[in-house]
Amino acid sequence: MPTEKEFQIAPIVPESVIHNTKALSNLQNLTASIFGAAAGILGLESYSGFLFYFVFTILTTVLFYTIRVAPTSLKAGHAMFDTGRYFRSSYEFWAGGLFGGLAGYILTWTLFYGLVRA
């Protein structure tokens, strides 16, 4: 938990947290649709299709973390996986996209599967 001195040095701005959350959500929704198209074109079915989605969504979140969040956190001297300064919670950052983009993934997955297999 940050101390009062840390809040005075680098305050958390709610508008910035909301902006970061929207940017991550947009990325996750876009990639969910792209992954759905890829799964449909590849002809994945059942568990392999859902495993494809979960693996690539987690990979996308890890890449987003290493490219955007980690360099600024480490420069500021914070803990390695501390996302609380940039997002509402760690859960929202790491697992929020798994379920937020699932509906879009399933829709594009079935659409492209039907188009390719028809």
List keywords for this structure.
5 helices; transmembrane helix; 118 residues; mainly alpha
Q: Can you describe this structure?
A:
This protein has 118 residues and is mostly helical. It has one domain. Helices cover 79% and strands 0% of the residues. The protein is built from five helices and no strands. Helix 2 packs antiparallel against helix 3 (46-76), helix 2 (14-42) packs parallel to helix 4 and helix 2 (14-42) runs parallel beside helix 5 (102-117). The radius of gyration is 17 Å and the shape is elongated.
In short:
With 118 residues, the chain is mostly helical. Helix content is 79%, strand content 0%.
Please describe the topology of this protein.
Blueprint: H1 4-9, H2 14-42, H3 46-76, H4 90-100, H5 102-117
Helix pairs in contact: 2-3, 2-4, 2-5, 3-4
H/E element order: HHHHH
Oligomeric description of these chains: single chain
Radius of gyration in whole Å, from Cα?
A: 17 Å
Binned strand content:
under 5%
Q: Roughly what percent helix?
A: over 70%
- What's the structural domain tally? 1
- Unreliably modeled segments: none
Instruction: Please give the number of β-strands.
Output: 0
Shape: elongated
Total helix count? Answer: 5
Largest sheet: none
Overall pLDDT: 84
Distance between the termini: 56 Å
* Structural classification: mainly alpha
